[in-house]
């Protein structure tokens, strides 16, 4: 048995190099133990085996870009077994069936697709639920956001934020990594300090006023709202502090809207 530890997060590039070396040496999936640095730390017994020496493989296998992209998403998942699953699929694509990912009923492919789908959904939530707050750094406006993704999805959305907020200095902080943009250079920082996030900013009150005014009490669908915006995201979204009161007052406000409408007839 060989043990390979992936120390980086999410770990795609490191896993890819190790996987190539394993393929070149024809090491089957069942002969490899894949682990992350976190899983080693969490091992109460401290058992480990010498890691395989990852060298530049002499033999290279052509892997479709679509398969590599699927791995890239799946490896951003927080599931500790993602490295082993991706290598198993890689092995099967290489030595069994190059069109394996098209078999939607295959158990390994179903698991892989589920991981990738969850990561894509998580990345989308970041663009929808992330909220910036303004601070002054060195005399310049700088916007900071704290966000807690379910998976390691920050890197997947950086192109979006760089494009959308190209001329704005911003920092996005997550529990595992931060991204800092100064309008020209993107810098990544591991394990950022969340205490730098301000409690509020001067723009927030206008946003709350706007959110309260666009709320339509006659069309409230609480279950649908919670399905698209689960409560676990609420603590980092200022407008959610208004939701409970707006829901409680919705019946009264809806009846008033109907009454006022009848008076105008």
Question: Largest sheet, order of strands side by side?
Answer: 3-4-5-6-7
Question: Could you estimate the helical fraction of the residues in percent?
Answer: 40-55%
Please write the string of helix (H) and strand (E) elements: EHEHHHHEEHEEEHHHH
**Shape type:** globular
By DSSP (H or I, 4+ residues per run), the number of helices equals 10
Summed over residues and divided by their number, the pLDDT gives a mean of: 83
Terminus-to-terminus distance = 81 Å
Helix/strand-derived category reads alpha/beta
Low-confidence stretches: 41-51
Your description of this structure?
It is built from 10 helices and 7 strands. Strands 3-4-5-6-7 form a 5-stranded mixed sheet, with no helix packed on it. The chain is of the alpha/beta class and about 260 residues long. Mean pLDDT is about 85; it is low at about 40-50. It has helices at about 10-25, 35-40, 65-75, 80-95, 105-130, 160-165, 205-215, 220-230, 245-250, 250-265; strands at about 1-5, 30-35, 135, 140-145, 170-175, 175-180, 185-190. The chain starts with a strand and ends with a helix. The radius of gyration is 24 Å and the shape is globular.
């Amino acid at each position: 048995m060989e043990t390979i530890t992936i120390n980086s997060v999410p770990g795609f590039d490191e896993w890819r190099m190790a996987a190539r070396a394993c393929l070149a040496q024809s090491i089957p999936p069942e002969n490899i133990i894949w682990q992350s640095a976190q899983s080693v730390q969490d091992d109460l017994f401290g058992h480990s085996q010498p890691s395989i020496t990852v060298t530049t493989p002499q033999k290279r296998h052509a892997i479709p870009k679509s398969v590599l992209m699927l791995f890239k998403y799946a490896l951003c998942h927080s599931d500790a077994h993602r490295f082993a699953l991706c290598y198993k699929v890689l092995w099967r694509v290489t030595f069994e069936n190059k069109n394996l990912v098209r078999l939607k009923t295959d158990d390994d492919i179903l698991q892989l697709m589920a991981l990738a789908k969850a990561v894509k959904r998580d990345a989308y939530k970041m663009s929808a639920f992330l909220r910036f707050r303004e601070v002054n750094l060195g005399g310049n406006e700088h916007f900071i956001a704290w966000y807690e993704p379910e998976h390691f999805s920050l890197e997947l959305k950086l192109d979006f934020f760089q494009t959308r907020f190209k001329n704005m200095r911003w920092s996005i902080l997550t529990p595992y990594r931060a991204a800092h943009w100064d309008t020209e250079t993107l810098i990544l920082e591991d394990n950022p300090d969340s205490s730098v996030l301000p409690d509020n900013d001067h723009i927030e009150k206008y946003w709350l006023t706007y959110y309260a005014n666009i709320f339509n009490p006659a069309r409230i669908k609480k279950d649908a709202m919670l399905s698209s915006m689960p409560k676990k995201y609420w603590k980092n979204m200022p407008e959610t502090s208004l939701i409970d009161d707006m829901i409680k007052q919705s019946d009264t406000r809806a009846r008033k809207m109907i009454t006022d409408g009848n008076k105008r007839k």
